[in-house]
Amino acid sequence: MTLETLAKDISKSAKAEAEAMIAEAKKEADAIVEEATEKATTIREEAATRTEREATQIAREVVASARQANQKEILVARRKVLDETLAATRAELSSPKMKGRASLLKSLMAKADKIGKDFNVRPVEMDRKALTELAGKRGMGDAVDGLGGFVLEATDGSVSYDMRFDTLLESSWKDQLSATTNILFE
Fold first, then answer.
1. Which DSSP symbol is given to 124?
2. Closest CA to 108 of 87, 89, 127, 125
3. How many Cβ atoms from other residues are within 10 Å of residue 16's Cβ?
4. What tens digit of pLDDT does each residue of 40-69 get?
5. What is the largest CA-CA distance in the chain?
6. Domain spans of the chain?
7. Which of 93, 114, 123, 160 is most exposed by smallest CB count within 10 Å?
């Protein structure tokens, strides 16, 4: 065997070994790429599932928050309407030209008659003239603040009955708030 033949054999053997190593490395690389692709697909699917779940949760929260905000706006609007209704009623009661004012004062004085005659009448100033006529023998005291009506006060000051429109309105408003709400909003 000559040196040249030996070199060719070694070269051929090395080439075959290198090709086998390259083929084996390609197989390993393909297996690694396939495994990485499978892991990436699994990670992508898990991320998509998690993202979908989070998006659904966020959507629920946003809808719930929007509903709550809408309910709050409705309640605020209703409260505003109720406040405006009460203010309009107060404005009407405070008007000296209110229709039925004289009959309302007469009705309140009739209730005062049932309480007793030993009382003084402390009128709201705008109703002083009308109440002076209705009070009969009762004394007229100092004026009180209010939308109308009077305070009936015992001559010794020990007892008083508030028959001012303000007090009657507040009492009636509290008693009738549910009915008023139903009328305005249903």
1. B
2. 127
3. 10
4. 899 999 999 999 999 999 999 999 999 999
5. 156
6. 1-93, 99-185
7. 114
